[in-house]
């Protein structure tokens, strides 16, 4: 049995679905169901007793301790977090609460559980913390990609809170011997991506005839990885990673934002042409830049490739086409996530940028 936190979010739900498509090992899924948690992502698991969903907070150490005592998982994979940089700029507090304080309480509960395990169960137990390349800060155009030993230089409240959580996880290994693994991944994309992030927002807005807002000059570079490749990397690290080690995960796919948006427009022009025959590119607009916007992220994934033999299976071209197809087929999912709270936040964010 494994315990996944944040398994109703974008990456967590892909992970749970992929895990149960390859294994009969039960997953306990602990998720607070914030605006980003969506049980509809897991609707194919209704009635599947290999999936036990628990609504709750990673910061609730009484709840977590009770779950651990009851289910005795052999591993925990911690996806739960506030994850959106723009939200961390408009309101950092939830990020501090979940990503730092919540991770601390989770670690405390896990430490208590692990201390009481015996023999093989204690030896084999793992706590895998899912983190981000953003903790390393921003690269200039010519700097080499981030390796695992790159200095931490987080620039947003989101990345600072993730950096703090990484440090706590590291300290629980060095001080208490907790068998931890940490992964730092680049930008993911794929099914169930909440339409506040660049790729799903552009697809959803394009189809709705709305503007496609590019922050600043659109030349910021991100390194894109198809979400199912991130999930396979996590499985591989869980299986073979060396305790206490950090593994960077990425797809060697650096692209400027404007190129991503052009690609999405071109795919939509091909797959769902606009009625009047014009390109979706005509919907692109420039808006005020994100404060403190990191210019470039790039992951050097050589360590996980060399030491654990992991490689992504999608190229950017195959992954982005699958993603656009998924959003075209899953329009009801999009409609359902566009809840009142989500719309209110989108309005606030973009009204301020366009003013
Ligand atoms: P997401 O925002 O889509 O999902 C986060 C999930 O965590 C949601 O289901 C939410 O309900 C849950 N959650 C939030 N606070 C919680 C709490 N206090 N207790 C329990 N559950 C809580 O995020 P995502 O994009 O799926 O990211 C998952 C993890 O991967 C995060 O830790 C993020 O930092 C990391 N990451 C994301 C990316 C990316 O490109 N999305 C890249 C690298 C790393
Ligand atoms: O690098 C990994 C990180 O990737 C994860 O840790 C975060 O959880 C995840 O949200 C993502 O962060 P980004 O800030 O890179 O993702 P986002 O989709 O918000 O933005 C991607 C780029 O696109 C960024 O340079 C900002 C820009 N952008 C974004 C939006 C939403 C726009 O130009 N317009 C937009 O409307």
UniProtKB/TrEMBL annotation:
NAD(P)-binding domain mapped to chain residues: 3-323
Cofactor dependency: NAD(+)
Known catalytic reactions: dTDP-alpha-D-glucose = dTDP-4-dehydro-6-deoxy-alpha-D-glucose + H2O
UniProt family annotation: Belongs to the NAD(P)-dependent epimerase/dehydratase family. dTDP-glucose dehydratase subfamily.
Pfam families named in the record: GDP_Man_Dehyd (PF16363)
Annotated PROSITE patterns: ADH_SHORT
E.C. numbers: 4.2.1.46
Keyword annotations: Lyase, NAD
Protein name: dTDP-glucose 4,6-dehydratase
GO process terms (BP): nucleotide-sugar metabolic process
Molecular function terms, GO-annotated: dTDP-glucose 4,6-dehydratase activity
InterPro entries named among the record's database cross-references: dTDP_Gluc_deHydtase (IPR005888), NAD(P)-bd_dom (IPR016040), NAD(P)-bd_dom_sf (IPR036291), Sc_DH/Rdtase_CS (IPR020904)
């Amino acid at each position: 049995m494994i315990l996944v936190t944040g398994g109703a979010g974008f990456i967590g739900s892909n992970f749970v679905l992929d895990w149960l498509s390859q294994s009969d090992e039960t997953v306990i899924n602990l998720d607070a169901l914030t605006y980003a948690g969506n049980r509809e992502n897991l609707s194919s698991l209704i009635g599947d007793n290999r999936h036990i969903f628990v609504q709750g907070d990673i910061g609730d150490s009484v709840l977590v301790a009770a779950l651990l005592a009851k289910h005795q998982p052999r591993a925990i994979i911690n996806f739960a977090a506030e994850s959106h940089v723009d939200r961390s700029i408009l309101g950092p507090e939830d990020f501090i609460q979940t990503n730092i304080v919540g991770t601390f309480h989770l670690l405390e509960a896990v430490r208590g559980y692990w201390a009481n395990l015996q023999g093989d169960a204690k030896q084999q137990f793992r706590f895998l913390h899912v983190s981000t390349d953003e903790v390393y800060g921003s690269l200039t155009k010519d700097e080499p990609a981030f390796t695992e030993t790159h200095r931490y230089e987080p620039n947003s409240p989101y990345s600072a809170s993730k950096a703090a959580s990484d440090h706590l996880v590291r300290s629980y290994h060095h001080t208490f011997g907790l068998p931890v693994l940490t992964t730092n991944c680049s930008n993911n994309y794929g099914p169930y991506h909440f339409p506040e992030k660049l790729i799903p927002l552009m697809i959803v807005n394009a189809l709705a005839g709305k503007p496609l807002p590019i922050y600043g000059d659109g030349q910021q570079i991100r390194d894109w990885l198809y979400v199912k490749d991130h999930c396979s990397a996590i499985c591989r690290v869980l299986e073979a990673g060396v305790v206490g080690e950090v593994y960077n995960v990425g797809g060697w796919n650096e692209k400027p934002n404007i190129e991503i948006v052009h690609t999405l427009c071109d795919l939509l022009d091909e797959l769902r042409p606009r009625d009047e025959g014009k390109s979706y590119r005509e919907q692109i607009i420039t808006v005020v830049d994100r404060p403190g916007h990191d210019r470039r992220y790039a992951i050097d994934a050589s360590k996980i490739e060399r030491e654990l033999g992991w490689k992504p299976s999608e190229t950017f071209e195959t992954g982005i086409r699958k993603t656009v197809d998924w959003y075209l087929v899953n329009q009801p999912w999009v409609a359902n996530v566009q809840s009142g709270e989500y719309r209110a936040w989108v309005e606030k964010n973009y009204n301020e940028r366009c003013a």
